[in-house]
Every structure is written in C-alpha cells, then in structure tokens.
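Note to self: keep these together.
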Amino acid sequence: MKKTLLEIKDLKVNVEEKEIIKGLNLQIHEGEIHIIMGPNGSGKSTLAYTLMGHPKYEISDGEIIFEDELINDLRADERAKKGIFLSFQYPEEIPGVTVEEFLRTAKTSVTGKYQGIMAFKKLLKEKMEELEMDEEYATRYLNQGFSGGEKKKNEILQMSILDPKLAILDETDSGLDVDAIRIVAEGVKRVHDKDKSILVITHYNKLLDYLNPDYVHILLDGKIVKTGGMELAEEIDKRGYEHIRAKYSVH
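Structure:
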C-alpha cells in the first residue's frame, strides 16, 4: 500500500478577506502524478501558493498534512526543507544573482549541507544538458532577459537540482511551444519516481500527453468537483467547463 504524502482536508482559504478555496479535499500518495484543471478564477494558483505557505493566503479552516505532519503554520522555507517545491507561473527576475549562485544557495539552504563549488558545477552541468539548456545560462542573472520559455525551463532546472518529495507546478506549460513542453515534461518525469509526487496545475492538455497522470481533478469555485483520468482532461478539451458547471451548480 502506497504511503500518503499529502492530505488536504476541508481546506478553506481567504485572500484579502475573500474566500477563494471553499472546502477542498485532496489526497496524494507517494509516486503519483495529479493534475488540477479549472477555468481562470477557480482557485488553482491560490491552492498552489497556500500549499507553499505564502503569507498572503490565509487558511481559515481545514488541514494540510504532509508526511503525517500538520503544516498549516509552517513558513515557506520550512516547507521547502521538508521537500515541497513550487514552480511559479510568473518567475521573478533577480538582477545581480546568477542562476548558479541562486541554485547553490537554495540547495545548501534546503538540504542543510554545504555544496562544494566544483561538485555543484558538475551537477548543474548535467541537469542543464538534460533540459537542453546552454551552459552560459548558469552565469546569467536569474531570469533577467530570459524569454518565457527560458524562465519555465529554469524553474524545472531548480526542481531537478532541489529534488523535492512533492513538486507543485503552477501552469509551467503556459506560453511554451511544443518542443519546450516536451523538454519540460521530460524534466518533470526525471524528478518523479516511486517516492516522489507531482501536482500539476494547468489549463492545457499538451503537457498531460507526455506525463500520463494518475488522476485529473476539476477545480471549480474553490472546490474539486470531479476526479478522473486522462479521459476527463480530454472531455474538458472538447466541451469546456460549462457542462460541469451546470451539473454541479457552480456559478
């Protein structure tokens, strides 16, 4: 029997005093890939930021349990050290800090172990080659002057370096061409194994074709209203969300 990695129980979340997540339940076991789909404004990114511990997102009720530990009150850095990673939809640019410096510092912080310069350079080179990234990216300032696709690849590079137990990808595939989506998907699959899980938040089916997820969830108005497999994603691709809205009386 697979161990439960993440359990969300009746979660309710407010943003600036407005309730966005309205009683959400989700269980992710080790080694599973879960997809959350939903229209704009349904609460997808709110869920991602809440799981990572962003202080703007206030939990008013419910529980987030990670590896049998309640983490509602943990800071983002504490959650990262426990093995949770969030890939941002809109990665920040950080002038003056190179990709290599940022990743080495992050790896040291998350693991609590000093990362030797030469050993880390070797690791970084290997991971960049897997993502078909030119070596010169390592010396560029983090995300500064990067294209949208380069920023997204850089997020997957971070995930590969940090090697989390649970990776949350918030619309990492948006704005990418077919080749970039394939590379991102391959990077995700390299991180995923029998002990590690992936939660992908997306509007699109393109990435799903590569990932072969275990579960697809539909999020509407702050709740997961339907769960299935790839057939559910294909249904949404063909018919949109209106028939599901009508069935579940979500407005």
